[in-house]
């Protein structure tokens, strides 16, 4: 029986790219695998046919020969391209399917072959939570912090080997960090048991770091906190994280800012709010009050006559500075008209007299009770 055209076997055109050929092979291989077709006696033969086609077309030189001479390119008469491989069908298949196995499962198994060649592993990033007060967030500050972390071992210079000697290439995996085992049609890849995936071994581990190339230690760092930071601001210090394993690059240190609540000011972005109590007399007659500002200064604010609770006045550019920018927010003064308590008999007498004389001076009360009367009248109707 004549062999089918390899392109027809895979279901691709003759001008198909390597990626298209591999994609078609993956689809056919999964579809026709004998383990998934126990009830189909033809599946195994077609499965081998697909692998033979892919073995020929995945290699650029073989593909070029096949495009020119067809199946005759592998019959031993065209320069010996196929002579040395005839009779090695299972080996050819394993080679072909191994490519797809790597493609499908390489990342799941821990990365591509050769991933263990880089013995130096990057250190972990670290997080440090820093609480500051609102005044420091306004002006910025230089802060010294203590960070527990891993630092390079000074005894072995981070190599992990006694005396700073260079580690040797792992004899089991030849520096790959992984070993492969042939199991029928499949090539199974596992982490090398000798070097645990590092790709190198240490004959005489450092007595101080026990071969890790780093030791635990507290470090003191000086951190510049810029003006304008707020809760949630993140500051990155590159290379100040955990030291890498066996001389690998260090991770980064991330400082997360938390600004504590203030007893006088409430913050909303760049703006500040300050609730100021005023007496009934001041709210009614008007006057001047003195209020604090976040920079430690004072500002005089004029209270208009007839001011009510909740009235706001703006002090421009008295808020928080913009983070790494120009300008500042504003400060808002919110009035809270305070009701006097613990009145003397004379004070109560004066207030009752004042109330009788001020029935027409309370516009909000007049409007409210007028609306209440209309509501009751409607309910009766």
Automatic annotation (TrEMBL):
<dbReference type="InterPro" id="IPR002939">
    <property type="entry name" value="DnaJ_C"/>
</dbReference>
<dbReference type="InterPro" id="IPR008971">
    <property type="entry name" value="HSP40/DnaJ_pept-bd"/>
</dbReference>
<dbReference type="GO" id="GO:0006260">
    <property type="term" value="P:DNA replication"/>
</dbReference>
<feature type="zinc finger region" description="CR-type">
    <location>
        <begin position="140"/>
        <end position="218"/>
    </location>
</feature>
<keyword id="KW-0346">Stress response</keyword>
<feature type="binding site">
    <location>
        <position position="192"/>
    </location>
    <ligand>
        <name>Zn(2+) 2</name>
    </ligand>
</feature>
<feature type="binding site">
    <location>
        <position position="170"/>
    </location>
    <ligand>
        <name>Zn(2+) 2</name>
    </ligand>
</feature>
<dbReference type="InterPro" id="IPR036410">
    <property type="entry name" value="HSP_DnaJ_Cys-rich_dom_sf"/>
</dbReference>
<dbReference type="InterPro" id="IPR001305">
    <property type="entry name" value="HSP_DnaJ_Cys-rich_dom"/>
</dbReference>
<feature type="binding site">
    <location>
        <position position="173"/>
    </location>
    <ligand>
        <name>Zn(2+) 2</name>
    </ligand>
</feature>
<keyword id="KW-0479">Metal-binding</keyword>
<keyword id="KW-0677">Repeat</keyword>
<feature type="repeat" description="CXXCXGXG motif">
    <location>
        <begin position="206"/>
        <end position="213"/>
    </location>
</feature>
<comment type="subunit">
    <text>Homodimer.</text>
</comment>
<dbReference type="GO" id="GO:0005524">
    <property type="term" value="F:ATP binding"/>
</dbReference>
<dbReference type="Pfam" id="PF00226">
    <property type="entry name" value="DnaJ"/>
</dbReference>
<dbReference type="InterPro" id="IPR018253">
    <property type="entry name" value="DnaJ_domain_CS"/>
</dbReference>
<feature type="repeat" description="CXXCXGXG motif">
    <location>
        <begin position="170"/>
        <end position="177"/>
    </location>
</feature>
<dbReference type="InterPro" id="IPR001623">
    <property type="entry name" value="DnaJ_domain"/>
</dbReference>
<feature type="binding site">
    <location>
        <position position="156"/>
    </location>
    <ligand>
        <name>Zn(2+) 1</name>
    </ligand>
</feature>
<feature type="repeat" description="CXXCXGXG motif">
    <location>
        <begin position="153"/>
        <end position="160"/>
    </location>
</feature>
<dbReference type="GO" id="GO:0051082">
    <property type="term" value="F:unfolded protein binding"/>
</dbReference>
<dbReference type="GO" id="GO:0031072">
    <property type="term" value="F:heat shock protein binding"/>
</dbReference>
<dbReference type="Pfam" id="PF00684">
    <property type="entry name" value="DnaJ_CXXCXGXG"/>
</dbReference>
<keyword id="KW-0863">Zinc-finger</keyword>
<feature type="domain" description="CR-type">
    <location>
        <begin position="140"/>
        <end position="218"/>
    </location>
</feature>
<comment type="similarity">
    <text>Belongs to the DnaJ family.</text>
</comment>
<feature type="binding site">
    <location>
        <position position="153"/>
    </location>
    <ligand>
        <name>Zn(2+) 1</name>
    </ligand>
</feature>
<feature type="binding site">
    <location>
        <position position="209"/>
    </location>
    <ligand>
        <name>Zn(2+) 1</name>
    </ligand>
</feature>
<keyword id="KW-0862">Zinc</keyword>
<keyword id="KW-0143">Chaperone</keyword>
<dbReference type="InterPro" id="IPR036869">
    <property type="entry name" value="J_dom_sf"/>
</dbReference>
<keyword id="KW-0963">Cytoplasm</keyword>
<dbReference type="GO" id="GO:0009408">
    <property type="term" value="P:response to heat"/>
</dbReference>
<feature type="binding site">
    <location>
        <position position="206"/>
    </location>
    <ligand>
        <name>Zn(2+) 1</name>
    </ligand>
</feature>
<keyword id="KW-0235">DNA replication</keyword>
<dbReference type="GO" id="GO:0042026">
    <property type="term" value="P:protein refolding"/>
</dbReference>
<comment type="function">
    <text>Participates actively in the response to hyperosmotic and heat shock by preventing the aggregation of stress-denatured proteins and by disaggregating proteins, also in an autonomous, DnaK-independent fashion. Unfolded proteins bind initially to DnaJ; upon interaction with the DnaJ-bound protein, DnaK hydrolyzes its bound ATP, resulting in the formation of a stable complex. GrpE releases ADP from DnaK; ATP binding to DnaK triggers the release of the substrate protein, thus completing the reaction cycle.</text>
</comment>
<feature type="binding site">
    <location>
        <position position="195"/>
    </location>
    <ligand>
        <name>Zn(2+) 2</name>
    </ligand>
</feature>
<protein>
    <recommendedName>
        <fullName>Chaperone protein DnaJ</fullName>
    </recommendedName>
</protein>
<dbReference type="Pfam" id="PF01556">
    <property type="entry name" value="DnaJ_C"/>
</dbReference>
<feature type="repeat" description="CXXCXGXG motif">
    <location>
        <begin position="192"/>
        <end position="199"/>
    </location>
</feature>
